[in-house]
């Protein structure tokens, strides 16, 4: 019997287990272990099932980066916030404001779904530059390593869900203003304010970041606005409206090293809007409805360096809207979540030959977290249909077992997929590309198992092993000397693991470290751009200090062996070491001022996957932050 059918049968069977009493929140036994190493934001995870649940009952391999983590490292963008997360390879990262595309466990950057409060942000070529997403409005970032298709649909390599801040309860008015300056005329100015009166709440953020290029010839300007309004329509009912606007322009002269007299520019104009409605029934049923709109107006242009004359414009528009609904029912030993997603999108190239393509998607999903003493089992099932790629079923079955206060086991089997990028469905004569209308999703069967241990309340250790069986990989096929197309046909296997440790706080210090390794084998095809067998490994370490007396700081170290072919001219020379510190010098109870500074890539290490996408050399910054 196929494994997919076994998992589907198991899901149906377990959903019929008799009901008793439980809750999604962490038990006292779980908190006594996890509370030593996690704060409240890390103890409950939303992205695994689309409903909050204790991290101890999450079978997926999950990492969480909180607003507190982001502030202590002085990160400017999501790319920096995730740069040192074990298992993530940050490709094409050229410093704050430039590039930064995440690959998880060797998935490739186009197979990781990036979301803002559950709304996918990936472009028409399925990538997303994390350095263009600011951090001030972020409450936390949840990363699921490995396919999350039974919950979110197309998410072959994993999910990065950026969860934004909301107005806290109680009448209040507070905010933050900060400004920093650094090398290459780099500046970052931002402000946020949060207010609530009775049932009405509002959160606003605005910021601007400029640079002449921390990495040589990568100048940019970013402007951001984020707003969220909430209204409590009743004791258990709320309405929310969110708006995010991003405008940026970046220019690079990467190809000058090859003798080309050109500079490449990329202008982005992004508008995001979302409306949410939530209500509860009888204290154990939650209904969430949302509608969203995302519009991207971008332009990839080219200037002649010697004359600064514009030689190419390639404006594109990618307009999407969608609806989602979910019902979470907590009763007895079950925490059931069921819902539906739908989206419509249109991609238009506003230059010759002027391609336009529409895509319509819908999905149904359900999952159930079943508690049976120390055992927690989570079956999940989702059906996705795309007007271009067809339909696909994604089952999953996960389990956690709290063997004792100090020992937790996890395991999950899941099927995932990645829809082909929209741009693969139409011709691009200028690039010699001929479309293939028969493309289907790439698929993956993923097997993961892990264990977490608390050692004498001093050290937390986490081991995760994974094996990914990948089929229907999209590969390029030559049609003639000047044309090519894409077809399904490749297979690959990826195996590896992660090992992470984190200490309990000792005299204000916390040490964290992680190593990861993955080996990817191409089974029945070759790609001249990559080795048939590729071994990638990385090491991260961080020492953070918070003495609770106004002084905080962190030092982070990162090394990654890319294992790329010579054609990429990649470098893995040295360890990228970053240091940041902040000192509060005024705190009246209603207003606080602090100075902060950072020194990045202190030893000028070279770590990049592509010679045209080099990481920044040594640079520094300093600034001031005011909270009220």
Tell me what the CATH architecture is.
Beta Barrel
Q: Provide a count of the helices.
A: 6
Q: Could you report the average pLDDT, rounded to the nearest whole number? A: 92
Helix percent reads under 10%
How many structural domains can be distinguished in the coordinates? 1
Q: What class do helices, strands and sheet pairing give?
A: mainly beta
Strand content: over 45%
Question: For the terminal residues, how far apart are their CA atoms?
Answer: 62 Å
Outline type: globular
In the CATH scheme, the class would be: Mainly Beta
Q: Which regions are unreliable across 5 or more consecutive residues at pLDDT < 50?
A: 3-23
CATH superfamily: TonB-dependent receptor, beta-barrel domain
Major β-sheet profile: 22 strands, antiparallel, barrel
- Enter the CATH topology name: Maltoporin, Chain A
Task: Evaluate the radius of gyration.
Answer: 24 Å
The counted number of beta strands is 33
Write the layout of secondary structure elements.
Layout: H1 3-14, H2 28-34, H3 40-43, E1 44-45, E2 53-54, E3 61-66, H4 67-72, H5 78-82, E4 88-93, E5 99-104, E6 112-116, E7 119-120, E8 138-145, H6 149-152, E9 158-164, E10 172-182, E11 186-197, E12 200-211, E13 218-234, E14 237-252, E15 262-281, E16 285-304, E17 309-331, E18 334-349, E19 356-372, E20 375-386, E21 390-404, E22 407-418, E23 442-455, E24 459-478, E25 484-503, E26 509-522, E27 533-546, E28 551-561, E29 571-573, E30 576-587, E31 592-600, E32 606-608, E33 619-627
Parallel strand pairs: 6-9
Antiparallel strand pairs: 1-2, 3-8, 4-5, 6-7, 8-9, 10-11, 10-33, 11-12, 12-13, 13-14, 14-15, 15-16, 16-17, 17-18, 18-19, 19-20, 20-21, 21-22, 22-23, 23-24, 24-25, 25-26, 26-27, 27-28, 28-30, 29-32, 30-31, 31-33
């Amino acid at each position: 019997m196929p494994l997919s059918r076994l998992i589907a049968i198991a899901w149906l069977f377990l959903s019929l287990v008799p009901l008793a009493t439980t809750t999604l929140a962490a038990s006292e036994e779980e908190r006594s272990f996890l509370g030593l190493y996690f704060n409240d934001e890390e103890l409950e995870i939303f992205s695994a099932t689309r409903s909050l649940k204790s991290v101890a009952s999450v079978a997926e391999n999950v990492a969480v980066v909180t607003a507190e983590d982001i502030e202590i490292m002085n990160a400017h963008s999501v790319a920096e916030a995730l740069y040192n997360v074990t298992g993530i390879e940050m490709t094409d990262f050229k410093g704050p404001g430039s590039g930064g595309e995440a690959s998880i466990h060797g998935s490739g950057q186009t197979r990781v779904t990036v979301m803002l409060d559950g709304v996918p942000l990936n472009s028409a070529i399925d990538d997303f530059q994390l350095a263009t997403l600011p951090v001030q409005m972020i409450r936390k970032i949840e990363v699921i390593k490995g396919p999350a298709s039974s919950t979110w649909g197309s998410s072959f390599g994993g999910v990065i869900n950026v969860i934004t801040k909301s107005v806290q309860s109680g009448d209040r008015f507070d905010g933050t203003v900060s400004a920093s300056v650094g090398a290459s005329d780099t500046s970052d100015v931002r402000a946020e304010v949060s207010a609530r009166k009775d049932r009405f709440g509002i959160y606003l953020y605005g910021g601007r970041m400029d640079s002449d290029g921390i990495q040589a010839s990568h100048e940019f300007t970013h402007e951001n606005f984020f707003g969220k309004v909430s209204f409590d329509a009743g004791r258990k009912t709320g309405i929310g409206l969110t708006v995010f606007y991003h405008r940026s322009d970046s220019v690079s002269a990467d190809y000058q090293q090859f003798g080309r007299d050109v500079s490449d520019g990329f202008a982005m104009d992004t508008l995001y809007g979302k409306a949410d409605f939530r209500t509860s029934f009888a204290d154990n049923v939650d209904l969430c409805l949302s509608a969203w709109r995302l519009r991207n107006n971008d332009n990839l242009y080219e200037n002649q360096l010697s004359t600064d004359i514009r030689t190419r414009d390639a404006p594109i528009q990618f307009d999407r809207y969608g609806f989602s609904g979910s019902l979470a029912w907590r009763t007895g030993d079950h925490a059931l979540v069921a819902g539906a997603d739908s989206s419509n999108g249109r991609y238009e190239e506003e230059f010759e030959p002027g391609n336009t393509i529409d895509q319509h998607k819908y999905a149904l999903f359900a999952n159930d977290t079943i508690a049976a003493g120390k055992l927690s089992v989570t079956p999940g099932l989702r059906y996705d249909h795309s007007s271009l790629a067809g339909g696909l079923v994604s089952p999953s079955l996960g389990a956690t077992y709290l063997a004792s206060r100090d020992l937790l086991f996890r395991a999950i089997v899941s099927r995932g997929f990645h829809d082909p990028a929209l741009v693969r469905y139409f011709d691009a004569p200028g690039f010699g590309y001929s479309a293939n209308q028969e493309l289907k999703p790439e698929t993956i069967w993923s097997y993961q198992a892990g264990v977490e241990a608390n050692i004498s309340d001093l050290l937390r250790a986490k081991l995760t092993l994974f094996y990914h069986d990948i089929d229907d990989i999209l590969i390029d096929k030559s049609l003639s000397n000047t044309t090519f197309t894409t077809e399904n046909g490749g297979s690959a296997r990826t195996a590896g693991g992660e090992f992470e440790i984190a200490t309990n706080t000792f005299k204000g210090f916390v040490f964290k470290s992680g190593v990861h390794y993955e080996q990817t084998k191409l089974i029945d095809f070759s790609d001249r751009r990559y080795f048939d067998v590729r071994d990638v490994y990385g090491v991260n370490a961080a020492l953070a200090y918070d003495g609770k007396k106004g002084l905080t700081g962190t030092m982070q170290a990162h090394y990654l062996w890319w294992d790329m072919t010579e054609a990429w001219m990649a470098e893995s020379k040295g360890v990228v070491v970053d240091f940041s510190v902040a000192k509060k010098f005024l705190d009246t109870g209603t207003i606080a001022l602090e100075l902060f500074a950072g020194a990045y890539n202190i030893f000028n290490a070279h770590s990049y996957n592509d010679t045209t996408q080099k990481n920044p050399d040594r640079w520094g910054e300093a600034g001031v932050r005011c909270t009220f």
